[in-house]
Amino acid sequence: xxxxxxxxxxxxxxxxxxxxxxxxxxxxxxxxxxxxxxxxxxxxxxxxxxxxxxxxxxxxxxxxxxxxxxxxxxxxxxxxxxxxxxxxxxxxxxxxxxxxxxxxxxxxxxxxxxxxxxxxxxxxxxxxxx
Amino acid sequence: xxxxxxxxxxxxxxxxxxxxxxxxxxxxxxxxxxxxxxxxxxxxxxxxxxxxxxxxxxxxxxxxxxxxxxxxxxxxxxxxxxxxxxxxxxxxxxxxxxxxxxxxxxxxxxxxxxxxxxxxxxxxxxxxxxxxxxxxxxxxxxxxxxxxxxxxxxxxxxxxxxxxxxxxxxxxxxxxxxxxxxxxxxxxxxxxxxxxxxxxxxxxxxxxxxxxxxxxxxxxxx
Lengths: 130, 222
Known about the structure:
The structure holds two protein chains of two kinds. Chain A is mostly helical. Chain A has three helices and no strands. In chain A, helix 1 packs antiparallel against helix 2. The model of chain B has no long low-confidence stretch (mean pLDDT 92). Chains A and B meet through helix 1, helix 2 and helix 3 of A and helix 2, helix 4, helix 6 and helix 7 of B.
């Protein structure tokens, strides 16, 4: 059956689970768990997303070809995020040649984010002081 | 007109039958959704890099967002996903009018979301927390967190902004379905187009499921 559908009861139960997930996300965010806060928030978000994809988007009832498309998306997203993460996480591991003088970091006494006009030569409008 | 006949009359000539057409269109929509996942994935990657590098500035800036309004908006969007799913179900069962009414309800909930979002944007503008396009940033924390704070608000407005654009497009596309649905276009069980627009709407909901905790709830515990 390619066009099978969940029952009305299933939709309501999934919706209530999504609302429960929302309540838990907000509640747990106010509990100090250190780094676990992010892990819990992401775990709940993934659980909610899985419910939406499987039931609201009918992937559970879809042919295997649809499953392949969904997993392809997940795999490419994982590649994107993990390789970007690995890049930034390992940048300090090896020494690199110093940047050209006009592209160097501003001196230490300059507040970060407010680069002087000299170090950024390519922007069109002056960055406003805040 | 019975269901089988209605379905046979709605098959494009390059498909063998309605089922094949249905599976092809759903697959095509999923491929489009995967490209959308990659589109949003790029911004999530930027977010990830800067949040890891500047956790304190992100936590501080995130606390300026209104988590009550964010929670309410998540509730509105999850509810709109339910009404959309029920609209698809109604079309599937050949209840065209019911599908039309549920689509209208979905649009109302989507508009409610956008209204709250607009209010939040306006409030941020008034507070001086919209450092975009040369607007000032009202910031009196440590100087080294000024840049990362500006980055957080930039990411907040870009991520919720492109999400809102998707919502506006979704509502506009849904509007095209009201008249056919109320006139009984889907009475015969030819629900393919409703199913497709439903997939789009749920995808927009999916993005928000991740945006909400990542932007509003970075660190609320102290």
